[in-house]
Amino acid sequence: MLVKWEGIVIRSVDYGESSKVVTLFTRENGKLGVMARGAKKTKSRLAAVSQLFSHSYYLCKTGPGTGMPDLSQGDMLDSFRDMRQSLTATAYAAYIAELLDRLTQEREPNPYLFQLLLHTFRYLDEGRDAEILCRIFETKMLIVAGISPQLTACVNCGEQREPYAISVGQGGLLCPVCQPSDPYAMAVTPSTWKLLRLFQVFDLERLGDIEVKPATRNQLKHVLRSFMDEYLDIRLKSRAFLEQLERMERMTQSDQD
């Protein structure tokens, strides 16, 4: 039986001498793997649509049982060419794709996540702020993982008293009265926790220009990565490369200053 899915390639692995196993995140069925036979051949009609990040319509052949579908044909919608030509944008895209891959299960439809990924890649392709897009995506994925920080009031007493700190162990904001309950609570500026709260409910389709100070960027990253490291049992290869790239960019910026 032939089926047609709209999908984005979030992982592509060589298989044998000429084929690839391609992981798609589809609008209709969530994450699934397909076999792209002959896709490694230069003249293959599947070569372009099986590349990482490609957004296409995929015509696949499925059979009885649970075998992997065969990719028969692809109709490219967007290759995100400009994103691919930027090392920084590509590094963030790879991290975002791997994070999505690791935090989702096979064949669990989630049209919202598909749209989130699509809009994130489109903004990266337009040259928008890759770091902030990544922070928004991380915030959304923490919600998917069920470990989203509580950022409306003190997680301990429920009162709304500033200045807040953020406790990873207790799962959200701590007011000044409750901060002694966690000696490891992170002091953050109001801009940081308010942006994190905005990211949780923010519709990415409505993204405008967001100006974020370097100190706030650092706090956003530290808070989100601390929650991920504490509660998610995953290690991402793309994160190590991205962090190395970020260090190099900071050193370059420091030399210029």
Explain what you see.
- Keywords: DNA damage, DNA recombination, DNA repair.
- InterPro entries: ARFGAP/RecO (IPR037278), DNA_rep/recomb_RecO_N (IPR022572), NA-bd_OB-fold (IPR012340), RecO (IPR003717), RecO_C (IPR042242).
- It is a single chain.
- With 257 residues, the chain is α+β, with helices and mostly antiparallel strands.
- It has a five-stranded antiparallel beta sheet with strand order 3-2-1-4-5.
- The chain has seven helices and eight strands.
The tally of strands reads: 8
For the largest sheet, list the strands in their spatial order. Answer: 3-2-1-4-5
Question: Describe the biggest sheet?
Answer: 5 strands, antiparallel
Please trace the helix and strand order, writing H or E for each element: EEEEEHHHHEEEHHH
Strand-residue fraction?
15-25%
Classify the helix fraction into a percent range: 25-40%
What class, by secondary structure content?
Answer: alpha+beta
Distance between the termini: 61 Å
Number of discrete helical segments: 7
Instruction: Based on Cα principal axes, name the global outline.
Output: elongated
Low-pLDDT sequence parts: none
| Radius of gyration from the alpha-carbon trace, in angstroms | 20 Å
Q: Averaging pLDDT over every residue, what do you get? A: 95
